[in-house]
Every structure is written in C-alpha cells, then in structure tokens.
Design goal:
Structural class: alpha/beta
Radius of gyration: 23 Å
Order of helices and strands: HHEHHEEHHHHEHEHEEHEHHEEE
Shape: elongated
CATH superfamily of the largest domain: Vaccinia Virus protein VP39
Number of strands: 11
CATH topology of the largest domain: Rossmann fold
CATH architecture of the largest domain: 3-Layer(aba) Sandwich
CATH class of the largest domain: Alpha Beta
Strand content: 15-25%
Number of helices: 13
Largest sheet: 8 strands, mixed
Number of domains: 2
Helix content: 40-55%
Strand order of the largest sheet: 6-5-4-7-8-10-9-11
Length: 334
C-alpha cells in the first residue's frame, strides 16, 4: 500500500529564503551599499551602475520584495532607500555590506549624480534672487518659523563671546537675530547672488560682527567651527542630505549645537519647480538617524503646523561634551 508523504510546511522560512535570494547578487549588494545614507531614483541608479533602466528596475523589484528597500515618492519621481532591518539576518547583511567599499567607478558616478543635483540647485538660486521671498512664502517663509527658532536658540543660553555660523542665509533675514545674540557670526553661501542680498541686509542693519563668505559649507577646509550652527530651510537643497548633515556636524564645536529648520515630508511636487527644492521635506526619524550617525545627540524638537498643509520641524542636535544635556522633549505647538 502506497502511503503519500505529508506535505511539509516551509512557510515560516519563506521570508528568509526571499532575503537570501535578494542578497545573492553582487550588483544588488552594491545597490544596498550605495543606499546606506542616500536615496536615488531609478534613472540615477541606472547611471550609477551603468545598466539599463529595465535591468535596474528588476533588481530593485527583487530588493523590494525582500523588504530590503523602501520607496518614497518625490513629485512624479520615485526614490529608493534602504529599509530598516526587520530581523537578525537582515541586520547582519547590512552590517556586512557597509563594511565593504563600493567599486571606485561606482563612487565616481555617485559623485557625478550629486554634482548634477548641486548644479541644478545653484542655477535655480542664481536666477531667483528677485523673487526669492515670494517663492519661499509659498511654502514657509521666515516669519512663520522665526519665533520658534529663537525660542529654542535662547533656551540654550550660549555664553558671552560665543560664535555662530549660518549656512545658506538667503537674503540674510535671520542674520540680525544672530548678530544680537553672538559675538561673532559667519554666514556661508555658494551662490554669489544670494550672498549679495545678505550683504545688503548687513549694510542696512549695520551688522558689524557678521562675516559673509562665498564658500561651500561642506567642502571648505578653512572654516572655523562655531558654538552654534544654524541651517534654516537649506537641507532640502543639498544633493546628499545625510552626508551634508555629517559635514555640518564637523562645523560645530564640542559642546555646541546644530539647529536645523526643515519641512516635514510632504507630497507637493510643485515645490521643486517653484522653489528649487531637491527633496520634498524629510521624515523626522530620518533626521534623527542621520544626526546620530554624524555623532550628534538629539535635543529638543518643535513642530509647527501651517495652514497650507506643510509642517515645519525645528530640531536641536548637540555635539558631545555639551555643558547642558539636551532635553529630548518633543512639543507640538498649535
């Protein structure tokens, strides 16, 4: 008498099998490495890995089915990023991937993609000086978040003689506030047109303790670290925000603070064309994760709801050895 063997149930191991299959290809492992602290669109990844769009789309589909990558819509484009680990094997895979360097030619092409993003941002601001404020007010102008930033800034109680650095001052609207609170203020911008607007503001308000410099805040080596670094509505213009935050952390003195004002993640793609935004805001968790990777500690955070549907996050990050430990309290003012 023939006995039919019982069908074995392998369902509990299905997810592991899919994960192992997805990680069994060198190109897919390099994609995961490239997405460690960045997100890219399909066309950008095709350029980075010198592969056709259909080919990279296939690999991304396999990674997505395994839960290794997540997607985020930026206007009409979809960007891919690494998903958070959902198991010991997933975490171990990413740890091993991150211990390996990307091929040199891939690193060169990533730099080229970042360069293309940065060039697009510079071109926008060089052309938009006459209508900058009107464009910013479409989303979130300085008056909408100034008081919240100042409240957080004043609560930090910097010592007399402390220094401040503002990255991307725009038309210089926030410089008078910094000049009243700090002995020395440096403002950096990589746009000559924007810097001229800030220079005019300094002349009008007689800001003798403010130095304006045409410089790349991320790449310049001759910039002195400051007790407080302020970045208002600028991070979404950087080609690689996570890497930018790491470089900005280097501009903060030990025991100092980094204040970032940014939009929360949104889906209003028109901001790209109207305001030159490279990124449609950021998830709160992303900023916290990037800051931690940059060696910063999370301080107090404020969230400001706006009538037009946007939300602003004002974040404080402290560099280790701060004299006053950050509070780590989130508040949501109405």
């Amino acid at each position: 008498m023939n006995m039919r063997a019982p069908q074995l149930d392998f369902e509990p191991a299905d997810d592991l099998a899919v994960l192992c299959k997805a990680g069994g290809d060198p190109l897919r492992l390099n994609v995961l490495r490239a997405l460690a602290n960045d997100s890219f669109g399909v066309l950008e990844l095709a350029q980075i890995f010198a592969i056709g769009q259909s080919g990279i789309s296939h690999h991304l589909k396999v990674l997505a089915q395994a839960g290794l990558v997540a997607t985020r819509r930026e206007g009409n484009a979809i960007f891919y990023r690494r998903a958070l680990p959902h198991g010991a094997l997933h975490a171990a895979l990413l740890q091993d991937v991150d211990a390996r360097a990307l091929p040199a030619e891939v690193q060169v092409r990533i730099s080229a993609v970042h360069g293309q993003r940065a060039q697009a941002s510079r071109m926008f601001f060089d052309k938009a000086t006459d209508k900058l404020r009107a464009q910013q007010d479409l989303i979130a102008g300085l008056p909408q978040y100034r008081d919240s930033v100042l409240a957080l800034l004043d609560a930090l109680r910097f010592e007399t003689g402390a220094s401040a650095l503002e990255v991307g001052p725009g038309d210089g609207g926030f410089l008078p506030e910094l000049a009243r609170r700090f002995a020395r203020v440096t403002a950096l911008d990589n746009s000559t047109a924007m810097l001229e607007l800030a220079r005019e503001r300094c002349r009008q308000d007689h800001l003798d303790n403010v130095e304006l410099r045409l410089a790349d805040a991320l790449g310049a080596d001759d910039i002195e670290a400051a007790d407080c670094v302020v970045v208002n509505m600028v991070l979404h213009h950087f080609a690689a925000p996570a890497e930018a935050l790491k470089q900005l952390a280097r501009r903060v003195k030990h025991g100092g603070s980094l204040l970032i004002t940014e939009l929360c993640s949104h889906d209003q793609g028109w901001a790209r064309d109207a305001c030159g935004d490279l990124w449609l805001g950021f998830e709160q968790e992303d900023l916290a994760h990037w800051a931690e990777a940059a060696g910063l500690a999370l301080g107090e955070s404020l969230y400001i709801g706006l009538r037009n549907g946007f939300q602003i996050q004002v974040r404080h990050f402290a560099r280790p050895d701060a004299k006053q430990a950050p509070s780590g309290i989130d508040r949501n003012p109405q």
